[in-house]
Amino acid sequence: MFSLSENLAIDGAAAVLFYFAVYSYLGWLLENSYNLIVNHKFFKANFLFGPFKPMYGIAPVLLIFFISSETHWGVVLLLCFIIPTMVEYWSGVVLQKFFGQRYWDYSHTPLQFQGHICLPFSACWLVLSWVCLKWIHPQLVDMYRAVAPFWGWGAYAMVLYFMADVFFTIKKHITRQLVKEVPDIP
Asked: Which InterPro entries match (predicted)?
């Protein structure tokens, strides 16, 4: 058995949105901090306008959904490896197919697949997911319980924010694509 606290339970749609938003923001911080260390520049190009990386919000929410305190630790480790890796793969495929953008490229990394995923980063996702489940998420559950009485309005605002960000992001990418397709007039 995996010794997680029972705080892993998701308490409804409002809680899912809270966890998604917090993890998406933490993912943005993590990725930009990594970029600062590697490239000496904090800001890294982002699909959305705001400071959120949705794939970092989706993976933990899926892990929380599929893992309980009774889940065998081996299954937990397997899910901590597979779920974030699949989220990263499908995020890369969708962004490339629909928006013609590659926000990361592992094609020069050993043990990679189509440049979207690679074993070294999947191992990092396993460790980060384990840390998230073991230590970060129980703290977030406590935080959510503290703000839950006030989160109703915040949840609506967050949904509107994400909808606006996605709308303007898609508009930006469509406009960029249209500009590329317009021939130069001599």
From this structure: CmpB_TMEM229
Phi, psi of 185 (to 5 degrees): -100, 125
Contacts of 54 (CB under 8 A, 6+ apart): 20, 24, 47, 48, 91
Distance set, CA 52 to CA 82, 103, 140 (Å): 22, 14, 17
Beta carbons of 137 and 64 less than 8 angstroms apart: yes
Query: Cα–Cα distance between 122 and 109 in angstroms, integer?
Result: 12
The residues near 17 (Cβ < 8 Å, ≥ 6 apart) are 155, 158, 159
For the chain, the domains span 6-181
SS3 (DSSP) at 81: helix
- The residues pairing with 118 across neighbouring beta strands, listed in sequence order, are 112
pLDDT tens-digit profile of 79-123? 999 999 999 999 999 999 988 889 899 999 999 999 999 999 999
